[in-house]
Amino acid sequence: MTMIKINGTGYETKAGETILETCLRNNIDVPYLCYHPDMQKQTRCRICIVEVNGKIQTSCNTLATDGMDILTDTEEIKKLRRMNMELMLAGKDFSSYKGTRFAEVAESVGVTTSRFGKNSNKKIDEDSPALIRDNNKCILCGRCVQKCQNVQTVNAIGFTNRGHATEVTPYFNRSLNDVACVQCGQCSLVCPTGAIKEQDNITGVMQAIADPEKIVLVQTAPSIRAAIGETQGMEPGSLVTKKMVSALRKLGFDRVLDTDFSADLTIVEEGTELISRIRNNGVLPMMTSCCPGWIKFMEHFYPDFMPNVSTCKSPQQMFGALVKTYYAEKNNMDPSKIVSVSVMPCTAKKFEIRRPEMRDSGYADVDHVLTTRELGDMVKSRGIDFQGLDEQDFDPLMGQSTGAAAIFGATGGVMEAALRTAADILEGKELESIEYQAVRGMDGIKEAEVEIAGMKLKVAVAHGLGNARKLFEHIRKNPAEYHFIEIMCCPGGCSGGGGQPIPTTNEIIKKRNEALYREDQGLPFRKSHKNPEIIRLYDEYIGSANSEKAHHLLHTGYSKKNQF
């Protein structure tokens, strides 16, 4: 047993734990900025300093060892923390950090102005449809660089120049829009200052809601219901589906519908496509196409896998195409007056709606994308008491879904949903077996072999683009090993998306995913092809899965993009 003393009190530490981690676990306040529990220690900000046996040390990278006597709040430590914070704030406007982790920490150490530096006036990069990069706010903590390079292996941004001229920029000082950035927003998720954040779509949405000539419909992604509560002071993993619906109505949306509906539709289309490829010697392994971040990654770095990718649009885009065709027709709405809004855990969705391929309805399939964070801000700005809201149901026609759709937000969820439907179709009967535990969990790459209709179906799941890269390299050497592969751009799947509440850690992602599995278990239908509204859609409008009409509205293609 390892014991240390912190501020005069003894504490037991865990093996491999740093001083900061011991303090945080025991609710001892030590401020920090560059530290993140799921990333390598960098010791850049030096705000987490403590006194260890009479010497000043950074607590985030100093292992807690037996016999240490630690002080966290002496006058000398306070003075040094203030100095370090002033140096990071040099030449910067404190008011621009409102609502960020940086502002919270600065205020906690008593610094809101700096004696150092001249006002910064660096150009703001606003060209990307998904992200804004403002180096006037950057403190060079390195979180974004580490996430982009080490976790996602995209390398769209990095440190340039030296000394006081050091900056974080895309290569060759280009805009994020002009490099091989996949728009995933993982950089914004870990940025403590708001130097990288999502493009604002709130203004456009509120203008549409205020326009009496417009019919504003909103769809909500599976993972939102397990995360939006965090923006309103609720614990991670709070499942608030019906309160979310109520909040959206209070915000003024004319119809509140559910992306889970089109997640079910995706499974029927994608499952049918997979079965067709297996039976007709099509290109295998087939890869899911639900995630725009991984699709863009593939286009930049692995375009040779393009024939492997399902032709299905993502659930967001399928929904958008149907809103302005099927839904408009059934509700006698003029599609030109419909404003289609989605709430997504993902910044790459803001990029996806601008793709020229996404206009098969004759209009932009989706007009605006709000992140979970943006929806949370809207709820707060209207003074809505989210926790006190009544519980309401989605509107009908494109608001009903199954448990299979609910788990789309978790890594492995798309695969499990597909297996539930594919098994019934291949067996020609409804099977009792419904859960596929092998594809669940937070392992970076998961494999499973499922026997269906006398055939052994081998599948794989990867989340986080670094893991996707490893899987692609493996497949190049073993091209016939798998039948079906699920790829999610963000660690943990959509629950860890770049538009989710801050902070997002692996522990928080696990809790959100657990909530989605609870949603699955509580729904009356748990297989996508059993959704009554999906059955009605095919009967009354599309005809059959993978039909000509289905391919026109619900399927698409992609193209090779430059790596630089």
Written account of the structure:
The chain is of the alpha/beta class. It has three domains: 2-84, Ubiquitin-like (UB roll); 131-197, 2-Layer Sandwich (Alpha-Beta Plaits); 203-554, Rossmann fold. It contains 18 helices and 17 strands. It has helices at residues 19-25, 75-89, 101-108, 143-151, 186-190, 202-210, 241-251, 259-279, 292-301, 315-330, 348-352, 372-381, 403-406, 413-427, 465-477, 506-522, 532-542, 548-554, and strands at residues 2-6, 9-13, 49-52, 55-58, 69-71, 131-133, 157-160, 167-170, 196-198, 215-220, 255-258, 286-287, 338-344, 368-371, 445-452, 455-463, 484-488. A hairpin with a 2-residue loop joins strand 3 and strand 4 (55-58). Helix 8 (259-279) crosses helix 10 (315-330) and helix 8 packs across helix 14 (413-427). The longest helix has 21 residues, at 259-279. The termini are far apart. The model has no long low-confidence stretch (mean pLDDT 96).
Strand order of the largest sheet: 2-1-5-3-4
Give start-end ranges of low-pLDDT stretches: none
Mean pLDDT: 96
User: What is the class of the largest domain in the CATH system?
Assistant: Alpha Beta
Short description:
The chain has helices at 19-25, 75-89, 101-108, 143-151, 186-190, 202-210, 241-251, 259-279, 292-301, 315-330, 348-352, 372-381, 403-406, 413-427, 465-477, 506-522, 532-542, 548-554; strands at residues 2-6, 9-13, 49-52, 55-58, 69-71, 131-133, 157-160, 167-170, 196-198, 215-220, 255-258, 286-287, 338-344, 368-371, 445-452, 455-463, 484-488. By secondary structure, it is α/β, with parallel strands linked by helices.
